[in-house]
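Subgroup meeting minutes
Present: P.N., E.W., G.H.
Scribe: E.W.

1. P.N. recapped why we're keeping a running log of single-chain structure predictions: easier to compare across weeks, and new members can see raw inputs and outputs side by side.
2. G.H. added today's entry (317 aa).
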Amino acid sequence: MVLIRFLLLLCFAISTGGYNRPLPHRPSIALQATPKSPSRTPQSSPPALFSNVTKMAVCGALLGPCLDSFHSHYEVLHYEYPVVSDFLGFVTTAAWVPPLFGVAGALIGTLYNIGDGAVLRRLPRPQYEPSWPRTAVGIAYFISQYWLSGYLSSTGMPHSQLFLLLAVLAAAGFWVFDFTTTGLVVAIMTAVGGPALEVGLIHYTHQYSYLDPDFINIPLWIAPVYFFGAVANGSLVRSFRGEGGGTARKVCEVCNDSRVTLCPNCDGKGLYFSYAQRIDCSCCRGSGQVICRACFSELGVENSVEGVREFMKSRPD
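Output recorded in log:
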């Protein structure tokens, strides 16, 4: 019964972002010269990003204490003033833990949004738009890693071996569920900053303690748990941002997701001849390629000539 309640809570927290539905299709339209800056997609607008970060805080506050209770259950750590949940009998936490996990979820979500921003402005990629099933599997993988860390620690497994095992699991999880520069940077920051924060909390507040620390009052194997925790949170905020429809997005039938097609004015040559004179094509600026109109809606530059040109400049030769 306790496990069923926990799974229901997990499903509720994930579902707060909406249900799995494909990204809306918008027909391409002709370019119109305008001095306005490139328009943004709904998922990247400030109100949407703020909403997604808020959802991350709620998920962190709900799920974090449940995961942390694995360590309490296996006597990895001890709270000075524990609170036991009546709804989930195995949850032993402290009153300040849910807000702390909520802030952590919001912070990781914000870092992912900032890191992904530069990439998504240039070219949407499938790994930046994970589907809800993929994200749910990633979170389940993280739950398993968290549980395994507490269970193996309670069996007396040497911390060096436990650290190596959890590090391998974290690296494998990153390779499968993320494998992006943003994810790697945020995961490393979390693996360093999380334990450092715990050192400060234990030393200055004395609100909890690890029963078998390695040095400076924490076990070393906690770092890989933090590492993949960032990856799982990153998948969640990306699903919130992309409405969880990443895998449902079809490859463009016009350009095969290259985002460019041959220039119709010069037939892809980049130039043409007039009265025996060579003239560079003004439509594609001599490149022989123009942006794929079928992809305008995904790039967020439907009505901006300047936005299209900036995107073309960002493409490698």
